[in-house]
Amino acid sequence: MTITENIRDIFPASNDIPPEFSLKKSLDQREYLVDGKLHIWQGEMEDSLSPIYLKTPKGLTQQKIGQFPCLSAQEALLTLEAAGKAYDYGRGKWPTMPVAQRIECVQDFAYRMKEKRDEVVNLLMWEIGKSYTDSCKEFDRTVDYIEDTIDALKNLDRVSSRFEITQGVIGQIRRAPLGIVLSMGPANYPLNETFTTLIPALIMGNTVIVKAPRPGVLLNYPLLEAFKEAFPPGVVNTIYGKGRTISPPLMESGRIDALAFIGSSKAANNLKKQHPKSYRLRSILGLEAKNPGIVLPHADLDLAIKECILGTLSYNGQRCTAIKILFVHKAIVDKFLDKFTTAISQLKFGMPWEEGVFLTPIAEPGKPQYLQDLVEDAKNHGAEVINEAGGTINETFFYPAVLYPVNDQMKVYWVEQFGPVIPIVPFENIETPIDYLVQSDYGQQVSIFGQNTEVIAQLVDPLVNQVCRVNINSQCQRGPDTFPFTGRKDSAEGTLSVHDALRAFSIRTLVAAKDIDLNKRLITEIVREHQSNFLSTDFIL
Predict the structure, then answer these.
(1) How do residues 238-251 score in pLDDT, each as one tens digit?
(2) Rounded distance between C-alpha atoms, residue 435 and residue 442, angstroms
(3) Is residue 313 part of a domain?
(4) Phi, psi (5° rounding) for residue 467?
(5) Assigned domain for 182 exists
(6) What Å distances lie between residue 281 and 179, 259, 490, CA to CA?
């Protein structure tokens, strides 16, 4: 069968699905967590539809996974009240709890979370079309992130468990929570990237309202009980529904102290504008990117092809860290295109549970049509789809389209496609890709492919002032999680990594006293009698 014929036959019948990956029943979630209780919603529900279609006697039918609550502004404000009560202006049980006890709560949650691995992984596949292998990686990486965050906080607390005496002043400096955090994760990594803000916000003593992404809502359902049991009431609260309904009342209240949001810059800007005192709002934002790959004339082509395939097409290119445009030197562009399109033709496509599958259906509604529009616009301005079956669509599946030659008159040259459309630009002068980065609204990462040390060294110095990560002979990526993850311009606000996130969701605070006998006696007694959780020299092992 040809690639096109296989695309037409990509979706299975229900009896073709391996039993261990099938949906046993519709997952109709009515529960939402507020103030330590699982409330039952009796109002409007929203369907969760999978990107996977099934063959039926009547043709292809989109698989319904289940339903989730479509809450109102009133319920949003109830979550805010619960989070506010638990924080209690910094006087609540959670923000004043010893660090060691907060760590125990997070460890308890992680233990309970691991028990739900199979259920969450299966829902990742069905909800967002992520392959089984990548779904497992997302779950396991999230657990690792929790454990690494705990270790990082222990190290941070050890440094803080001492007094400083400077210029006649005794002081102890620690990090204190910010208050109430609104955490909004993305649909492409609904578990991992939500938790990379949620967990550090929690462990630093903040209370949190979690707005799950759509799609990606139901995979959080198996974890509600774990949140309920592991944390005090009101520390974690969940909210579901339309963002335009539930986000404005939260932001307009002025009571959200930190916004953790991963999505579009337009949405982030609108959210921040709704806050009456935006200067008081701590924002940790992961936004768009248009990361270029630059293939130099002396590149190792086999290595460059391998990394460019991973960079452009891992999870169908639906990653902010994906390589979204390739600049290839004219001296090698013909060889590159031949090897690159051949490599794409060998990628396995199909259902998420199939072994070795690389390309899968796309979960975002309307995305195939959006990608097709970008392809047509590029063709109208002189590009061609140069790979076999490029841009072929079957319902939610879009086969990768390699566009060449691409120029600055095409929309795909500038906009983030966030999908399997790969624009390739030929260049002779290295200033071409450098100018692109200078003019771009985005500044997250770049990948350089080459073997000439002098040329690469001369590129690194200007590029680190345009983006926040320069990758040499490797794809753009986030990990490892101990490395800083951020961006310039419209790509990010704030920095995330295991230890950066702890700082992002806290503020340096100190207790100080003049170095006199009275103050020495007071501090000594407080520490010796363990009367304060802040003034303490306890050392967490």
Answers:
(1) 999 998 999 999 99
(2) 13
(3) yes
(4) -130, 175
(5) yes
(6) 10, 7, 18
